[in-house]
Amino acid sequence: MAEYLGAKYNPEKGYDNDICIYLKPKTLDKIKDKDYVDVSDSGDYLIELLKERPKIKLIASSLVSYEYLKERLKNKIVLIPEHHCNFEQIKRSRQDVTTGGYISVPSVQNYSVTDEVRKRLKKIGLNFITCFNFKNRQDVLDFYKQIDIQIIGHFGFVDNSEVYRHPTKIISAASFGIPTIANWKLGYKEIEGSYIQSRNMDSMIEEVKKMKNKDYYNKFANKIIKSAEPYHISKIAEKYRSL
């Protein structure tokens, strides 16, 4: 976003009179009252720090996070969602549904869950790929170009306290016209209806089978592409400019 706006990124000097945004800072020691803190998915440790600094302004990245922070802090808070990765507005063009996928960070839980998803999909004739080592936006684009369905397979792990979770991953897939099957999460509030909720592995498989119907798939794909349009970087950039 800094590059897109022509802004300075991690400058060492010459920013005293600028509008400064600090992403998930560990401390507030160097942050001035006129500055912004982007809370993102940082967690409650920042709330305790910010209670002592009510003049610092905040950026929340999801509707649930915004509402949660408003209830607990006196600081000015603005809602600026994260943009999706698909700047070029690339559209999925394959006709057949053959490949599911999941992109995230490496963890024991992610490897375990995705192994189970891979086994389940193989039984119904679908491939499943993962991307746990992406380095830049191009890596993310290359991943989404390979898949037909995004499957976030942590079914059954419902935690209503996940107020900092944001739906960017689902929105990024939607921008290509790629449906997502995922567990319900509180932080996905603003995109209800734009992803397919699944309670467990069995219901996930049933939803994937439905997606093999081209008419069903295309109808849902067209719907979610439209839902992703407000999250294009050009539109999110305007929210930053308004600061």
Layout of helices and strands, plus pairs?
Blueprint: H1 2-5, E1 21-23, E2 36-38, H2 45-50, E3 57-60, H3 63-72, E4 77-79, E5 99-103, H4 108-123, E6 127-131, H5 137-144, E7 149-152, H6 168-175, E8 180-182, E9 196-197, H7 201-211, H8 214-228, H9 233-241
Parallel strand pairs: 1-2, 2-3, 3-4, 5-6, 5-7, 7-8, 8-9
Helix pairs in contact: 6-8
Tell me what the structure shows.
The chain has 243 residues and is of the alpha/beta class. The chain has 2 domains: 2-80, no CATH class; 99-231, Rossmann fold, CATH 3.40.50. Helix content is 36%, strand content 13%. It contains 9 helices and 9 strands. The chain has helices at 2-5, 45-50, 63-72, 108-123, 137-144, 168-175, 201-211, 214-228, 233-241; strands spanning 21-23, 36-38, 57-60, 77-79, 99-103, 127-131, 149-152, 180-182, 196-197. The strands form 2 sheets. Strands 6-5-7-8-9 form a 5-stranded parallel beta sheet, with helices on both faces. Helix 6 packs across helix 8. The protein is elongated, with a radius of gyration of 19 Å. The model has no long low-confidence stretch (mean pLDDT 93).
